[in-house]
Structure formats: C-alpha cells, structure tokens
Specification:
The complex is a heterodimer. By secondary structure, chain A is mostly helical. Chain A contains five helices and no strands. Classes of the chains: A mainly alpha, B mainly alpha.
C-alpha cells in the first residue's frame, strides 16, 4: 500500500509541475490581456486607430485564464468552500468530505472534459469563428478549455486515490 | 411533483452539501445538473448543460474586469503606493484626536481605489499604520479594530470585487455597480472616522493626543508624493464615470499604470510581478469556477421557475419592496457571521435578483446594500476575516477576542449608515444616474 501511495505521490508531483506551468501561462495571459486592452485604449484615443478585435480576443483569453488555473487551485486545496464546520470534524470526517468533493468534481468534470474535446475537435474541423466586425478563430479557446479541464480531471483522480489510500492506512493503523 | 418543489429540493441539497464543506462551484454545478435531469427526465439534458455552460459562462467580456483589477491590487500591494498615501493623509489628520485611526480610515478608502479586496487592505494597513499607532501609544486592540473596520471600505470604493461579481451574477451594469459604491464608501469612511473620534473622546487612554510637529511644507510635500494613488483613482473612478473607459479598459489601464509606477519607483521587483501574476491567475480561476457552477445552478432555478414562484408568494403576502429588502439585509447580516460574503453572493444573488426584479427594486441600489451588509460579516465573530487578517499581521500584542470586542462600537455607525443608504437610494444612485456612458 505504501509503495502504491509513493507512486501516486510521484505522479502528483509531476502533475503539480504541469499545473504550475499552466497557471503561469494563465498569469502571462492576464498580462497580455492588460497590455492589449491598454494598447487598444491608447490606439483609440491617441492614434484614432484601435487594436483589432480587442473585445473578441479578451473573451477568448478569459478561457485560458480560468481553465489553465483551475487544476493548480485544486492541487493547492484552494477551491472555495464553507469552512466553519470543517474544524469540528475529526480526521475521518474531513477525509470523507474531501472524498465527496472529489467524487462530485470527478463526475462533473468527466462530462465537461468529454464534451469539451468533442467541441474542440468540431471547432477545429469547421474552423469556428466569432461573429461580428472581426472574426477570430475559436478553436484555440475550445482546446484551451479542454486542456484545462483534462488537467483538473487528472488532479481529481490523483486526489481520489490519495484520499482513499490515506483512509485505508488510517483504518489499518487503528485496527493494529 | 411540481417543478418548484424539485427546484427547492435541489436548493436544499446544495445548501446541505455546502454547509458540510464540499467545494462551492462543484456543488452548484452538480445540483444544477442533477436537478435538470430530474426535471427534464433525461440525461442528455445534463450533458447539454455541461457542454455549453463552461464556455458560455466564462467567455463573458465583463468578467475580464476581475483578473485585471486583482492584478492591479497585487501590483499596488508591492509598489508602496499605499504607504505614501497614508503618510500624506496622516500629515493632515495627525493633530486631531484619534488622528492616526482617522488617517488610516481615509487611507484605506484611497487604497480602495487601487484594490478591490478588503483582506489586502487589512494586511497592508496593519503593516503600514499599526506600528505608527503603537508608537503613538494607541491601545493595540483599538488600533487593530480601527484598521479592520476601515479595510472593509476597499470593497465599496471602485474597483470593488464584490460589485463586479454581483454585476455578473445579477446581470447588472458593472460600470454602474462600481460607481454606485463610491458615495456610500465616502459616507462609510465619514461615519467610521466619527466613530473613532468619539471613541477617543470618551476614552482618551486608547489614543493619546499627539503634538503636531508637521509643518505646512512637509504636509504639501507628503501630499505631492501621494500622486500615484491620485492618478490611479482618476483613471478608475474618473475614467468609468466620464465614460472614457469601460470597466475592463479602466482595469487594464489601471493595472498597466500601477506596473509602470512600481517599476519606475523601483519598488516592484521581477519576483513581485511573477507572484502578482500567479496570485491573479489563482484567484480568477477559483472565482470563475464558482461563477460557472452558479450559472449552471441558475439555469436549474430558471427551468423550475423558483424565483418567479418565490416572487409571487412574496407578492401574495403583500409585502412592500422595502420590507423585502429589510428581510434580505437582516438575513445577510446573520448569515454573514458564519459564511463569507462571496459564498453568500454566489448562492443567494441568483435567487433574490429575480424576486427584486418582480418587486421593481433597482438592482444597482441593492448592489450597494448587499455589499455593505455582507461587508459587516468580515468584522463579526466567529469568522470575521478582516479581524483575523489584522490579528495575524499585528502579532502577539493583540487577541482575536479583544479586537472583536473593540470592533463593537464600530458596528453602530455602520448600521446607521446602512439605514441611511436604505432610506436614501439617491446616495447610491446619484453617480450611476449621472454617468456619461452607462
């Protein structure tokens, strides 16, 4: 059991590095969003020439900012929850709540990830574009959403195995 | 079974899972999906909901305000802008009894123009103002209570994170929501300042009188040095009010200006920029996941007709809009003691907003009332987050119980201000109504 958990811990470490990189990309995307929007404002007022598709690009970048960060937030245990009862639970109670969270998350994100990849492939095939004055291709955003949710799904699987493993170890220790 | 009953049942399930401690975004998404399956009678509806909502709920232009304002707040934390503003305000207020506490209040209000987070304000001003107050002989718990109370102003003065999230959840104009918080923020700063003044008058031991040694020249010099804060306030508040910027443009320009100021003043280092970007990405991701869950849950509520049903029940009871607002505010004040403000918003705003719409209540006016009442929860036991933040930074001289006790006199003026805001909607609605571009 211990060697299995050690194996999972190494997978978790590798995945944490991936998640950290994705979150770093999300941070850089925020900076790009900041520069592009400022450039658009400057272009509009100073040069009478706004940057193209600032509105559409901002909406696409938001997908990266959100979905490239969510797995890192889960890995760091940062997702929002009401904590006022957590302190009264014992170790078992807290593990049970964590397992419920992960199982529900796994269910929701398994469907989201599955559907996100279908949509991403469709968007790639038909070269889906935004409608309006500027047409921007949408498949990069769709693929970004699919990559981010896949990463969160993997994180949920890692967390589930770790929580169950730790519960089993605690039970075994208390039996002995 | 009637759809409304199914909706209420899944609302109950969501609340139960949330209280147990399951992640908010996931619970809302799960209950929204399962409720839709029960209502529509097939699983493909659930798949359809999870296929379209993640993209549709996040790829919203108005949401871009959030990461950019968070980034601006992070940059301003490191760039030392707040310390210069505090020194300037303090040089003018220092002579008044309780002057340091009053200066902190107005410096927090000024900081609110660069950051939408009360916790950030609490942390920064405990570092900046608390040592000064202690040096001047202020009683530690009183000093901390003053800082904690003043830090809540950051959530009212634009840019406010609460206002942005409220605007997204209520589908109200974010620009108007942001501007609506400005005058109530000034009102709150004034009542908190009066409260500090009268507390010191009543008990001079908590804040000894200071001899004023600051000359007019020094005061002017300190004020000039606070130019970055004034510039940022002009960009955000002036830009949005005048219609020069949309909230997204104001947030981007503000973040860019803060970055340039920090780099030019050599206070913002490369590792600070990296940490700021990570923090902005982290906070945006966690908030947006909840927004996605709330969108899925809001769809269930719409399918079930729960808000319309609740609205008709309230109409049947012949309650006036002001009574309904009063009940919601009291509910927020009570729940706010146990649950953090953002969670309350995510759970209750999608339910209350359609009811308020039916009753003809202005959603911008309600944004201010909701923010002020939820803000108070950050100062009340047992989970007053601002108090815990101040205590964590202030250290051993203070106790959590002592700070909570010292906060009690500040509740009264805040409640009075809340009543004034309910009675006079003009305070909240004057700026949104006169904005050049809505």
């Amino acid at each position: 059991m211990n060697s299995f958990l050690k194996g999972i811990d190494s997978v978790a470490r590798i995945h944490l590095t991936v998640n950290k990189w994705l979150a770093s990309v999300a941070g850089i995307v925020i900076l790009v969003m900041c520069f592009y929007t400022t450039g658009d404002v400057f272009g509009r007022y100073a040069l009478n020439k706004p940057l193209p598709a600032a509105f559409e690009i901002t909406m696409i970048l938001l997908i990266y900012v959100t979905f490239f960060g969510i797995a890192y937030v889960q890995a760091r245990g940062g997702h929002m929850r009401l904590e006022f009862l957590l302190s009264v639970y014992g170790r078992h109670g807290r593990s049970a709540v964590d397992i419920i969270s992960v199982v529900i998350g796994l269910f929701v994100f398994a469907i989201i990830t599955w559907q996100a990849w279908i949509l991403a492939i469709e968007a790639w095939v038909i070269q889906e574009r935004t409608m309006g004055a500027y047409t921007v291709v949408l498949f990069p955003a769709r693929i970004g959403l699919a990559i981010g949710s896949t990463s969160l799904l993997i994180q949920y699987i890692i967390d589930l195995v770790r929580h169950i493993g730790h519960c089993l170890i605690i039970n075994k220790a208390s039996e002995e | 079974m009637a759809p409304e009953i199914i909706g209420i049942a899944f609302l109950g399930l969501a609340v139960a899972l949330l209280i147990v401690g399951v992640h908010i975004g996931i619970v809302l998404a799960f209950c929204g999906v399962m409720g839709s399956v029960v209502i529509l009678g097939n699983f493909s509806a659930a798949i359809g909901l999870l296929k379209s909502t993640p993209y549709a709920s996040i790829s919203v232009y108005e949401l871009s305000v959030m990461p950019l304002f968070i980034l601006m707040g992070e940059f301003s934390l490191y760039s030392g802008i707040s310390a210069a503003a505090y020194t300037a305000i303090n040089s003018w207020m220092g002579k008044i009894r309780g002057g340091l506490a009053i200066a902190t209040t107005w410096a927090c209000a000024a900081f609110g123009a660069t950051s939408g987070s009360s916790l950030a304000a609490a942390s920064v001003f405990t570092k900046v103002a608390y040592p000064e107050m202690r040096k001047a002989g202020y009683e530690p718990n009183f000093a901390c209570a003053g800082i904690a109370t003043a830090s809540t102003l950051a959530m009212l003065i634009p840019p406010s994170l609460y206002m942005v999230i409220y605007g997204v959840l209520a589908k109200a104009s974010i620009a108007q929501c942001l501007m609506a918080g400005f005058l109530p923020g000034i009102l709150m700063a004034a009542v908190i300042s009066f409260a500090s003044y009268f507390m010191v008058l009543r008990n001079p031991k908590i804040a000894p009188a200071l001899p004023s040694t600051v000359s007019l020249k020094e005061k002017t010099l300190a004020s000039v040095k606070a130019w970055p804060m004034i510039l940022l306030a002009l960009i955000i508040i002036g830009g949005i009010y005048s219609g020069v910027f949309t909230p997204t443009e104001a947030s981007a320009t503000g973040a860019f200006a803060t970055l340039v100021i920090g780099v030019a003043m050599r206070t913002l280092k490369w590792h600070n920029v990296r940490e700021s970007l990570m923090a902005a990405a982290f906070t945006t991701a966690l908030l947006n996941l909840v927004i996605m869950g709330a969108s899925i849950f809001a769809r269930l509520l719409t399918i079930c007709g729960v808000p319309v049903w609740l609205g008709s029940v309230i109409q049947g009871l012949e309650m006036s809009p002001i009574m309904v607002i009063g009940i919601i505010i009291i509910l927020f004040l009570i729940i706010g003691c146990f649950i953090d403000a953002l969670s309350i918003m995510f759970i209750f705003i999608p339910i209350f907003v359609p009811i308020l719409n039916i009753l003809g209540v202005d959603l911008i006016y309600f944004a201010v009332l909701a923010t002020v009442s939820l803000n108070m929860g950050t100062l009340t036991p047992p989970f007053g987050l601002c108090v815990y933040t101040v205590k964590a930074v202030a250290g051993q001289e203070t106790t959590v119980t002592g700070i909570f006790r010292a906060c009690i006199p500040y509740y009264v003026p805040q409640l009075i201000a809340l009543v004034l805001l309910i009675a006079f909607p003009q305070i909240s609605l004057l700026l949104p109504a006169t904005m050049l571009q809505r």
